[in-house]
Design goal:
There is one protein chain. The chain has one helix and twelve strands; from the N terminus they run E-E-E-E-E-E-E-E-E-E-E-E-H. By secondary structure, the protein is mainly beta. It has a domain at 50-163. It has a twelve-stranded antiparallel β-barrel. A hairpin with a 4-residue loop joins strand 9 and strand 10 (109-114). The radius of gyration is 15 Å and the shape is globular. The protein starts with a strand and ends with a helix. The model has no long low-confidence stretch (mean pLDDT 84). This is LURP-one-related family protein.
Length: 164
């Protein structure tokens, strides 16, 4: 499954649509403006919230939490620094599963893996539109909403780090 993310369409609160391969709107990333901490909601086309994404206020390293229905789903934080690539760790709420995110995040060229197996590729390579990138969910049994939320978190954390 491939999704097209039109990043940061000049709306208040950083709202933007995510489309499927046919160009149909599938998800809305709804940035909540005027909040004390960075908050996003990933919604379906009918406005139902699929996952909440929040930046943790008090953490040693920048951390974002993904929740589904008030239940923690995953925690995203920077793993380590490398000269050429960014690395982030996604700890799922079950406590035993971790996803690895690595690549050039600010360039929108990175991958999400579980135990060495590719789950999703985030890339601008096959697109010509400015401020647009693709999320290619490789595994059919993967949760697209979770993987898109992970991409949103990682990009947001990398941009915040660059600003600081």
């Amino acid at each position: 499954m491939r999704f097209l993310v039109r990043d940061r369409i000049l709306g208040i609160g950083d709202d933007y649509w995510i489309e499927d391969e046919r160009g149909d709107k599938v998800f809305l990333v709804d940035g909540k403006a005027l909040r004390l901490r960075d908050t996003f909601e990933l919604k379906d086309t009918e406005g139902r919230v699929l996952v909440d994404i929040r930046r943790k206020m008090f953490a040693l390293r920048d951390t974002m939490v993904i929740e589904r229905g008030d239940e923690p789903l995953a925690t995203v934080r920077r793993k380590r620094l490398s000269l050429l690539r960014n690395h982030y760790r996604v700890a799922l709420a079950d406590g035993s599963t971790e996803l690895d995110v690595s690549g050039r995040v600010l360039d929108r060229e990175f991958a999400v893996e579980y135990d060495g197996e590719l789950l999703a590729v985030i890339s601008r390579r096959w697109l010509t539109l400015r401020d647009t990138y693709g999320v290619d969910v490789v595994r059919e049994d993967a949760d697209p909403a979770l993987l898109i939320a992970v991409a949103v978190c990682v990009i947001h954390l990398a941009e915040k780090e660059r600003e600081d």
